[in-house]
Each structure stands twice: as structure tokens, then as C-alpha cells.
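Exam review. A common question shows you a sequence with its C-alpha cells and asks you to describe the fold in words. Practice with the pair below. Do the first one on your own.
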Amino acid sequence: MADRPYTLLSCGMSIDGYLSAATPTRLLLSNDADFDRVDGERAASDAILVGATTIRRDDPRLLVRSAERRAARVARGLAPSPLKVTVTREAGLDCAAAFFAPDGADKMVYAPSSAVPALRARLGAVATIVGVGHPATMRRVCEDLGERGVGRLMVEGGGSVHTQMLTDDLADELQLVVAPFFVGDSAACRFVGDGRYPWHPGRRATLAEVRQIGDVVLLRYALSPRFREEP
């Protein structure tokens, strides 16, 4: 079996730990300089993963924005943007979402095996549908991506995906950006939920870097021996 990909969790949150507000409007948790940094991380990745809830709520495109970075990927024989990956429990994703747009990036949808027939009927023309048993765990997703040649996986949320990746000890690196404001609404989505985490008061995560980027701060944590020092 191939090694699972080197897995980077990328997240922006408010001072009080929220990924979003409990409103339909998307909450911007970063600034232009940090968005450009994230774009560089995307360009260096083989695949980008988000949960189905993030697709429904934020409708992200998940593409490399910089023309220079896209050209550099093409020069290396790669697609302009990495493979886009999502995980869902059911067949309710909308094929009109920006995730599935004909933008030159391949798309994969992981799901419980029982949901595969309905998903193929709904999304088979725009994405590869993969069943990974019952339930569709993040460990099985990562193992399958590794077998498909994905060496570096960037995970961009949301809270449920981050929680599963961290509690199952699948993350090698966490890049956590803190925005300078509070949300203050328990109905909003938090960075992570309840769970048994490998890092606790008796086993602290290693803080590898602290960097101010305009009015936000980036915290880089090394979460496994595979952590790479180079940003």
C-alpha cells in the first residue's frame, strides 16, 4: 500500500475559534497577502480537499489564482490547478457548484459505498466517484489518494473534516491563521468539534513558526515526524 499523502491542514479562524458566522454571508478571515500565501500552498499541492458542507455553504472554486503559478505547474507537466476532492455521506451535492465547473482541474467525490450509484447518476459526468466502505472515513480517503499518486494533500475545511483529520492523527502540518475579531455566536461553525485528539496537556503540539501577515497571524504546527520545515 502506498504511503498516505503528506497532509497540510489550512484554516482561518476568528480569535474565538470560529470558521464562519451563523449567516448566509461568507466570513472573510484573512487578507490579500495571506490569500496569496494560501495560493502558493495550493500550487504546491497535488490535491485539495474540502467537505461537502463547505461546498454547499461557501461554493469555493479551489483553483490556483496566480497566472504565474498556474504556468509553472503546466511547465512541470501538471494541470494548472490541483485535483479537487470532497467527501460526502449522501448524494445531495449540486453539479452546478463551482467545485464541479469545467475549469481544467480533475474532481473526485468520496462517499460510503451505498451512496455511489446515486452519486454517479448525479455527478458522474463531472467527477470521479469513489466508494470507500461504511462509513467513508478520512483514513480510507487518504489511503486511496496515496494509492492514486497524491503526494501532498491540502485540506481546507470545514470543521467536521478538520476534526476527523486531527482526531485520527492524519495531519502532518497545521497552518492556522487567526483573524483579529470575534464572532461570538455558538450557532456558527467552529474550527474543530469534540473529540479525542493526539495533542493534549500531556502531549503538546510543536509550534514551528509564528508569522504576522498584515493584520492576521499565521501559526504553523508540526504534527508528525514528516513535518517539512520549508513553508
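Now try the second one, then compare your answer with the model answer below.
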Amino acid sequence: MALKCVAIDDEPLALELIRNYVSRFPVLQLLQTFEDAVSGAEYLRNNPIDLLFVDINMPDITGIDLVRSLVSKPMVIFTTAYKNFAFEGFELEAIDYLLKPIDVKRFGKAIEKAIDYYRYKTATAAESKDESLYVHSEYRMVKINMKDIEYIESMEDYIKIHLQFDKTILTLMPLKKVLEKLPEDKFQRIHRSYIIPVNKIISIQNRKVKLPGIELPISDSYVDFARRWMKM
């Protein structure tokens, strides 16, 4: 496996640092670097790649606007000199954000995420043994083991994924969309606000599902599931 990469940054020293770091990872193949965002965008429109390193703050086009303009979007790692980067980048589902000056260990962690996500996207159902869910939280790609999910709660435009040991992850996504990412035989929607893992049901009674540590309501639209479960 070799991930084809491009780096775009108007700072020559920043590009040189990325070249240096990329050379330490045999899995990465750096095809081109650009100090000019317009030229970089034109190259990307005509050449498919796997991973893009792009600076957010550039004089002609921001990295966010550049990525948004692409019809075919690669995995993206944004780089920035500012701690407070634009919220708009969230919708672009970036793999990670790296704060300049970029530390090589932090760079390595971002690459691990990219490799992990690439394998997840390209694996067939037969090849995939690790059942995971990828969501964006705190401007980064987060991997969640499905077996750790206790339940998923809708909060208007966001969802809160409740995990083991009272850990939660908040992500901008409708409940319907996350349900599409989950195995149909292992997760069930029971309410317009809740999705639960079927194997963690303790009991169902009076239109309520008892899970470890919590009871959740079953709405009228999903009572058929409750009847099927009780027959099992």
C-alpha cells in the first residue's frame, strides 16, 4: 500500500518540513508540492490522490475553500499556524489538523489515522474483522469500536455517542446518517432520538428498553421491534 500525497502551503519552510516528514514514512508517496494554492487546486482536479496536506491560511485561496471546491475529495490533513481554525473545516471531514510548527510525533499520529481510515474505506466486508465507526469530533477523525457503544442519542443537528466507562463523543451528524453506517443486525433505532446495540438489551417492558445503567423509551414507530425481540 502506498498513499499518493500532495502538499500545498505558501510557506517554503513548511513545505520542506512536510517533505522531510513524509520521507520517513514508506507508506507515503509525495507526488507534488505547491506554494501556489491555485496551481495546487488545478493539479488536484486532474490527478486523483489519496491524501492532501494543505495549509488553511493562504493568500489567494484558503485551504478550506480549496478542499470545498474539489469534486473528488481525498483524505485531508489541514495544517495551520493558528489554534483557532475555521469551524467550516468540520463539514469537510478532515482526518486531522496539525498546528505549526509541526512535531514529527504528532505528524506520525495523523498519518496513522489516515492509514487506518484508508484501510477501513477500501476493505471489503469479508476482509474487515474490526467493526469500527468513524466520525468527526473536535475537528478530527475519531475511530470508535462498535462494541464500546452503549447507545446513541440525537441532539438536534448533533448526535452524542455514549461509550463504555461514561465516555461520550459529540459529532455533527443526523441520527439517520449514523444508522446507515451501523450493521443492521446489531443496532436498532427505537425512538426518533435513540439508537441502541441489540446485544446490550437486558429487558423490554412497558415500551422501555433497559440497557446497562439506563432505560430508554420506545416510540410508537418502533414497537414492532420490541415485539420481535420479546418473541426471541
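Model answer, second protein: The longest helix spans residues 104-122. The mean pLDDT is 88. Full marks require stating both points clearly.
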